[in-house]
Amino acid sequence: MATISPSTAEIVRQSGAVPGAEYLLEVANVRKAFPGVLALDDVSFRLKRGHVHALMGENGAGKSTLMKIIAGIYTPDSGSFKLKGQEIKLTSPLDALRYGIAMIHQELNLMAYMTVAENVWIRREPLNALGFVRHEEMRRRTQELFERLDIPLDPEAEVRDLSVANRQMIEIAKAVSYDSDILIMDEPTSALTDREVEHLFKIIRTLKAQGKGIVYITHKMNELFEIADEVSVFRDGHFVGEHAAADVTRDQIIQLMVGREITQMFPKETVPIGEVTLSVKNLTLEGRFRDISFDLRKGEILGFAGLVGSGRSNVAETLFGVTPATSGTIAIDGREIAVTNPGVAMDAGLAFLTEDRKESGCFLLLDVMANMQIALLRHGHAVGGFVKEREIEALCQQQKQRLRVRTPDLQEPVLNLSGGNQQKVLIARWLMTKPRILILDEPTRGIDVGAKAEIHKLISELAGQGVAVMMISSELPEVLGMSDRILVMHEGRMTGIVDRKDANQVKIMELASQ
Prior knowledge:
By secondary structure, the protein is of the alpha/beta class. Mean pLDDT is about 85; it is low at about 1-10. The two termini are about 45 Å apart. About 35% of the residues lie in helices and about 25% in strands. The strands form 5 sheets. The chain has a 6-stranded mixed sheet, sandwiched between helices. It has helices spanning about 10-15, 65-70, 95-100, 115-120, 135-150, 165-175, 195-210, 220-225, 250-260, 310-320, 340-345, 355-360, 370-375, 390-400, 420-430, 450-465, 475-480, 505-510, and strands at about 25-35, 35-50, 50-55, 80-85, 85-90, 100-105, 180-185, 215, 230-235, 240-245, 275-285, 290-295, 300-305, 325-330, 335, 350-355, 380-385, 385, 435-440, 470, 485-490, 495-500.
């Protein structure tokens, strides 16, 4: 098998470096600036052997930037690094891997048109004497790895055919396959169900027992207290403090993160529910879901719940014309329409926030303004083929301020923004179209606790203005806290609709498991 060649890094990793070193990794006084943004300012961090160290902070606080420096993706402007007590330099991702540092990114980096096995062993494929890939051997090694991690996936499946959750498990397996001493996990559970999260935690506990150090970036407080030994908090590019996870409370961490108290996570307001604006009857997409029927009213928030693979996102995509239905009807304000493509849906007043901002949401190489304005060009903001730039720029500035998008200006490439700020740009895009029906698929995925409260407040405000909201979420507290009614799905079937007053986690999970 092709391997990363031995080097000074490998010698440092395997030698045990300084005898008795307490920390696997020590980072001191790191500074990193991007054009117009000081991302990290004099930041320090320490990771113990056999420990899970959680990183907490709002989007743009610097967590992912620091981890990308440790993973060799970014080069720091200043700062020092020690691996097992010995000074090291990190200049590239390959260098970091040689030192035994692997990273699972928040934004998945798999090759969609390659197989699962090819993705796991890319650049490390087993070769024969002539230099050709030994596919059967690669499949065997992948199957062996998956059996060790209890991941039920076919190594020969193409990644493009898999769910976001299964792609996440491939990324985790790929990182584990390097047998690294340090594993960085950036929002690893953002697309996983509760059952899959517990599976991941089982893998993490096994790695801990082997003496591996895990850096765990998350916005989910319950995960922190279940899996972390230590927690470090970042705010606005500064290191705020390090604490034993057992010594701090949820509220204390939130205050350290945001510098203020979040008094209400789910600010659901009671608003007048109007007449039916969207009526769906026996909607079917062969092979994905069948016979989905519901009404959505003005001012109502209809939550969609279900396990990964239940078909929730497929229903949303069909309503927006991404994958047109094979049968059934869609009516808006009593008038039946054939939603054959997203243009038809947008003209009818629909907006759709996709669950995968990187794959099907953001145009990463374009700037913030281009990403926000792109849906507006169907709504009277272009004359004779020319865009009303000044008018649109003013609207984009308003949304930037309203959603607190952290960017130096509207000309900043979206690629340079944190995942949470990319999500805010997408939300801004659809708010600017002033939709009558807003479909939100995982609207707070990868969003920090402060921004979540802001997004929830915004959703309630939109409902109060008469917007009909359909909200898909894998987080049951979010669905329960924000919805007027909850539609539950299981394996492509609708198993029930529950009113807010009757809904609880047990009832929803029972319906989701039928």
